[in-house]
Write a structure and sequence with these properties.
flat; alpha+beta; about 65% helix
C-alpha cells in the first residue's frame, strides 16, 4: 500500500496498491474466477438459469434499500 495525501483535501489520504499488491489482487481475482467456473459447471442448466434469475432479483432488491 502507498499512502498519498489528497491534493484537494489535505486532511485526507488516498491509498494505492503497490506493484506487489496489484499482482496479489490479480492472482486472487484469477483464483476466484476459476473457482466460480468450477462451481457453476456443477449446476444443471436449469439450476444455472434459476441462480441467475434469483441473483438478478436480489440485486434489484438491494438497489431499493
Amino acid at each position: 500500500m502507498k499512502r498519498v495525501r489528497d491534493f484537494h483535501d489535505t486532511r485526507m489520504f488516498r491509498l494505492h496498491l503497490s506493484d506487489e499488491g496489484h499482482e496479489q489482487a490479480s492472482r486472487l481475482a484469477k483464483s476466484l474466477t476459476e473457482r466460480h467456473e468450477r462451481l457453476l459447471a456443477e449446476l444443471k442448466p436449469d439450476e444455472q438459469e434459476a441462480l441467475a434469475y434469483g441473483l438478478s432479483a436480489l440485486i434489484r432488491a438491494l438497489r431499493t434499500v
